[in-house]
Design goal:
The chain has a single domain, classed as Aminopeptidase. The chain starts with a strand and ends in a 6-residue tail after the last strand. With 149 residues, it is an alpha+beta fold.
């Protein structure tokens, strides 16, 4: 498996994984628009020509917001998400990003557990932030360390 920058030709595969993973998915055009901002960190995990997962992080000055991360259902539980986050952390550090924040549904225990394993800490809860179904979101943050490896 390789992790590489997301390219416009990945948009169809990424949008399909997004649609299969979320009740309020980004569109193909949403990914294309995000790719046009060079400061954003957008990565895909690929194996044998197939996109297994992706992550999108918006960067503003020294802070990044991990807005989207998903792994194809058939590839879940195989370390794809952890690999994407590890590469995000490395790219963020190289870009001068000191902190990465994210939000996850409180019921998404697998994601929250992965984020904690990858060094994210809970900052708090946002009430009723999600729709379809309505539920709370947990805010998490990662602060870059000197040595990731």
């Amino acid at each position: 498996m390789i992790i590489r920058p997301m390219e416009p030709e990945d948009a169809d595969s990424v949008a399909q994984i997004e649609k299969d993973s979320f009740t309020q998915p980004w569109s193909r055009q949403g990914f294309l628009d995000a790719m046009r901002l060079p400061e954003n960190i957008m990565l895909v995990a690929q194996e044998d020509g197939e996109i297994l997962g992706y992550q999108c992080t918006y960067v503003s000055f020294d802070e990044g917001e991990l807005t989207n991360i998903a792994v194809k259902k058939s590839a879940r539980g195989k370390g794809v998400g952890a690999h994407l986050i590890r590469c995000l952390q490395e790219k963020a550090k190289e870009s001068g990003v000191e902190r990465i924040v994210l939000e996850a549904r409180v019921t998404n225990e697998a994601a929250i557990s992965l984020y904690q394993k990858m060094g994210f800490v809970n900052l708090g809860i946002r009430k009723n932030i999600y729709e379809h179904p309505v539920e709370d979101g947990v805010i998490m943050s990662y602060t870059a360390e000197e040595n990731l490896c």
